[in-house]
Amino acid sequence: MQTDVLIVGGGLSGLALADHLARQGRDFLLVEAQDRLGGRILTKEMSGGAFDLGPAWFWPGQPRMAALAERFQIPVFEQFSAGDLVYQEQSGAVQRGRGYASMEGSYRLAGGIGSVVHALAKVSDPAKIMTNARLTSVAHSAGKITAQVDQDSSAQTIKANRIVMAIPPRVIADTVSFDPALDAAQMQALQNVPTWMAGQAKILAVYDQPYWRNAGLSGDAMSQRGPMVEIHDASPRQGGPYALFGFVGVPADARAQHRDEVMRLAVAQLTAMFGPEMADPMHLVLQDWATIPNIARPRDRQPVRSHPRYGLPANLRALSAQGMIFASTETAPEFGGFLEGALEAAEHAASTLALNEPMRA
């Protein structure tokens, strides 16, 4: 199998890069290890509503996301924030009106963030996309890439002029071998980049009525008791069903071992904080990103507590001369870790490819 540019990763960055290349008339092939596109973007439909189990927001001052929504005519709406915030002390005592809606002013997309993935996939040539296809090795020299991909337990060899790895650096370090091998400092640089969101888990609870809104609450909540430490309204732009989601504060190993108990305690927490009507959700879902090896690696099981300083490590930049470009959101210098960062990384990769036309093998 032969292509000009091999894109590894079918998340937002990989799909955006594929879109750039398609509009430039360049040949490419995209491979994705999971059985779906989107990467860390995951929007699920439940009872007629679309709910984000991965990233849910973007912000003013993030022009690439705004432009993408405008291009595909996806309605943008502000995060619901009207009403009081709820605060739960470690003792379980609940207070109203303490604090502020932390996501006020952020934007969401009608149909969820997955609507962007769907739109980009729809304008892509399906013949240029392979799912269930995991990159295992890369032989590299200037203008010549030979990649081994495991698709449905069958080995595939793909020859390309350039390879763009739009997957988290730690996934690359742990799962891809290189010939010639990367040096120890380069491997360490890959390992040192935390995968944004990979250690997180979200619980989503869906209801037929917005009971919290009816009680004058915004749905925003903070808790020192848990298991959810931060809660937000996750309802669709218009109509129902309605939902709250919460970031789980229980460590990854503990929540994996005590999943049922975590879910039981989550419902008890929602009931205590928002009222007895919350005791019987229509749907209750736990999305644990730490359990997905194509996204989270062992070092990611402890979630980062503040936003890392992202950007491509300096000692990895020279590998572009060997035909290897890195383009996950973690490599974006300005918006690393955000959806906007994925688009920034794709934009930078497209510019690098355009400036350095590959030698033909």
From TrEMBL:
A Gene Ontology molecular function term of the record: oxidoreductase activity
UniProt cross-references to Pfam families, sorted A to Z: Amino_oxidase
Domain Amine oxidase: 12-84, 91-352
SUPFAM superfamilies the UniProt entry points to: FAD-linked reductases, C-terminal domain, FAD/NAD(P)-binding domain
Gene3D superfamilies listed in its UniProt record: FAD/NAD(P)-binding domain
Protein family: Belongs to the flavin monoamine oxidase family.
UniProt protein name: FAD-dependent oxidoreductase
Organism encoding this protein: Harenicola maris
